Structures are given as structure tokens and as C-alpha cells.
Amino acid sequence: MNPLRRIDTFFRHHPVLTDVLVACWLMLSFSAASVAAASPVGSTDGATVPWLLLAFTISVGQLAPWAIRRWRPVLAAGITVFFCLVQLLIGPDLLPSIAIVPMMVHNLAANGPRWASFAGLGTALAGAVLNGLKIAYAPPSFLDPGADLISNNSSMYGDPTQQAVIAVSFAVGAAAIVLAAWAFGDLARTRRLALEQLRDRARQLEVEAAQERELAAADERNHIAREMHDIVAHSLQVIITQADGGRYAGAHDPQVAVATLGTISETGRKALGEMRRLLGVLRGPEATEFHPQPGLVDLEDLINTIRLTGLDVDYAVEGNARRALPTGGELAAYRAVQESLTNTVRHGGPNARATVLLNWTNAGLEIEVTDNGRGAAASESTKGSQQGLVGLRERIALFGGTVQTGPRQGGGFSVRAAVPYQEI
Q1: How far apart are CA 382 and CA 258, in angstroms?
Q2: Domain count, the chain
Q3: Mean pLDDT, the chain, as a whole number?
Q4: CA dist 288 to 163, 229, 231, 280, 293, Å?
Q5: Whose CA is closest to 340, among 330, 319, 355?
Q6: Which residue, 41, 118, 297, 339, has most beta carbons within 10 Å?
Q7: In whole angstroms, how far apart are CA 155 and each of 25, 88, 158, 191, 237?
Q8: Among the three residues 208, 238, 256, which one is the final residue of a domain in this structure?
Q9: Which strands sit side by side in the sheet containing 364-371, from one edge to the other?
Q10: 61 with 90: CB under 8 angstroms?
């Protein structure tokens, strides 16, 4: 890696340490320059010692706060302002360390609160004006060993025109530097906030994408669970019932056993075909076998298959469809009837009887499946996990429909579902 890039990476990853190192460098460089600037040429008077000590203290006080300028920008600026006021009142007119002022203004505009940014700008502009007035009009400090030299050899301090020119020139020049520093700092602040917003937006999009993936995965798992339950539960229940019946009937009438085995074989093949279709969807589009989904026209075949288990089923349709059901609505209605009749076969007990009624209304299709079996009063050995009813509610809810299930008064169980028409 490029050495310059390594240095840049180190400074970006250690901002506080960088500020401390910069502050130390500023104090070593500008403090010595400030002491040299405050020393009168050719003077050996001992009175220069407190004057130089004052200049050194002011310089260090102005520069040292740079070490905390990121995590305490207002405090750092406040300390610098204090020592600038000391310089303005009793210190030298100009010190090289005064260069910290536009740097602090830039830092406040970039990293400080908005109110501190404007307060720092106003304070710096006021300081520029006051320093210009001090240079032009204020008498030399009594601590300055070169005061007599300046007052005796600088006749311009008695000329009002020259004093005004000096004050205005210094104030305008310093103010221009301060304004430029604040403007660049404000631009840096704006850019930083924009980058933070972009990063926050990117993080938010990542979170939303992860949540969408989780929701999509959960929805797909629910969909697969519903399909697996509808296929496996119904088919296996028919197979088990037929196998039990064929085992007893075969001892007296072998022909019944043969017919029963045919029903078991046909049901198993249908279930296997549907399972292959479902697994093809999971593997991807290239492995998918597309077959028509069952609908209302297939209810007769479904009911005939259920009747082979020994369950007596009455089927009726009332009314006529005014509009088409939404895409997948007929499959949902088919699965509702399938789940209800499968539950009756499993839990209804002997001599159970079921009724399937489809009623076309002005709002959509109403499905009612009732039985006179033991239903909700079934023993623990025949109770299921109710995953089928949960899947039924989820499937019907996808189309804005409703499902009501529960025991009937006087015995039995009922399932009522409503699937609305497709919106125009």
C-alpha cells in the first residue's frame, strides 16, 4: 500500500490522536514564533521576561484547545476566545498564534452546533474589528519593553487618517479570512450531514431489505406448509381409511379389496404428482412442471373420493356467480372444502355425515361445510394440531375473505368461509 495512503488511513481511524499531535506541533511552532515576534529588537532589559512569558502563555492557551476540537468544539473555541481577549487587553498586538482563530471558526462551522457556528463567526468578526482598533489607536502596554521605541519612532500613530486606514485595513482583511474559513466549514458541515444521511439511508435500506427477505421467506414457508398439509393430509387420510376398510372387507369380498387397492393407488399417484410439482417449484423454474390447479369444477371428484372412505357427503350449489373470483380464489375454495371434509373423516367418528353447500351471493362465494360427528368433542387421540385450519384462514385471508370454525349446537362441527369477488 502507498505510504501516504497508510498515513491517511491512520489519521482517519485515530482522529483524536491526530488532533493532539497537530496541537503539539502548533504549540511548538507558533509559540516559539510568537515569543520571537514579541521580543523587541536589540533589547536586553530584564523587563522583557514577563512580556515574553505573557506572549508564550497566550500563544499556548490559544493553540492547546485544538487537541479537543472534535469532541468538545464549543469548549475548545471558548478557551481560545478567552486567551484572545487576554491578548486584546494586555498582550502584544499581533502574534502568529492568532492564526488559530480562523481554524476554530472553521471547526465550529463544521463540527459544532448551529448556534455555536454563528456565535463563533460573530465573535471572530468582532475580534477582527477590535484588533484593528487596538493596533491603530490603543497606547502600547506598560509591559511592552518596546513601547517607547514604538511611540517615539512611529509618527503615524498621531495621524488620524493613517490610524483609520490601519484599523479598516486590518479589520477588513481579518474579517475576510474569518468569513472564508466559516464558509468552507459550513460547506464541510453540509457535506458531512449529507453523507451521514446517505449512510443512514443505506443502513435503513439494508435493514428493510433484510426484513423483506425474512418476510418473503416466512410467507413462502407458510405457503409450502399449507400446500404440504393440503396434499399430504388429505391424500394420506384417504389412503389410511381405504386401507383399513379394505383390510376388513377383503376377508369376505376380495373384489372390494381390489377396488380399494385401486383407490389407494390412484390417490397415491395424485399425491405424488402434486408433491413433484411442489418440489419442482422449490428447485426453480427449470424444474417446475406446470399443471392446472384444482378449482370448483373439481369439487365433484374430490367429494367422490371422500365418499370412498365411507363418509356420506351431501353437496349442493345455490345461486349463480355474478363475477369471477380473484386469481387463486377457486383454489382457496377447493382447499377449504378439502380441509373440512378431511377433518370430518379424521375426527367425525363412525356414522358421520357431512354437508357441503356453496352459495353464490352478491358479495362472493360462501362455503359452508357441516357435519354431525363428534368434531370438537373428539378425544385426545383424534385431535390434530389444527395446522390445517390455520392454513385455511391464511389462504382465505389472502383474498380478503373470512373463515369461521367451531362446534355446532347439538353436535358436530362447521366451517364457514367467504371468498369475495375479484375487484373491478
Answers
A1: 28
A2: 2
A3: 80
A4: 93, 20, 17, 4, 14
A5: 355
A6: 339
A7: 39, 23, 6, 50, 117
A8: 208
A9: 312-318, 353-360, 364-371, 413-420, 402-407
A10: no
Nearest-angstrom CA–CA distance, 333 and 294: 10
In a domain, 246, yes or no: no
* Segment 254-273 mean pLDDT: 74
**Cα torsion at 61, 62, 66, 70 (round to 10°)?**
100
Q: Are 171 and 317 part of one and the same domain?
A: no
319: domain CATH number is 3.30.565.10
Cell readout for 210 is: 433484510
- In the prediction, which pLDDT does 208 show? 85
Cell of 36: 520571537
DSSP string, 151-216: HHH-GGGG-HHHHHHHHHHHHHHHHHHHHHHHHHHHHHHHHHHHHHHHHHHHHHHHHHHHHHHHHH
Mean pLDDT on 131-152: 61
Share of the chain above pLDDT 90, in %: 27
The answer to whether residue 135 is domain-embedded is yes
Choosing from 208, 234, 252, the residue where a domain stops is 208
Alpha-helical (H) ranges within 250-385 are: 254-283, 299-307, 329-347
**Distance separating the N- and C-terminal Cα atoms of the chain:** 64
Q: What cell numbers appear for 58 in the block?
A: 497566550
Q: Which are the contacts of 302, defined by CB distance < 8 A and separation ≥ 6?
A: 294, 334, 337, 338, 341
Specify the pLDDT at position 150. 42
Cell 522583557, located at residue: 48
**pLDDT tens digit string along 348-392?**
877 889 999 999 999 999 999 999 887 654 444 445 556 778 888
The pLDDT of residue 417 is 94
Identify the burial level of 341 via C-beta atoms within 10 angstroms of its C-beta, where 0-12 means exposed, 13-18 middle and 19 or more buried: buried
| Least confident span in 60-64, 152-156, 294-298 | 152-156
Residue 272 resides in a domain: no
pLDDT for the residue 92? 81
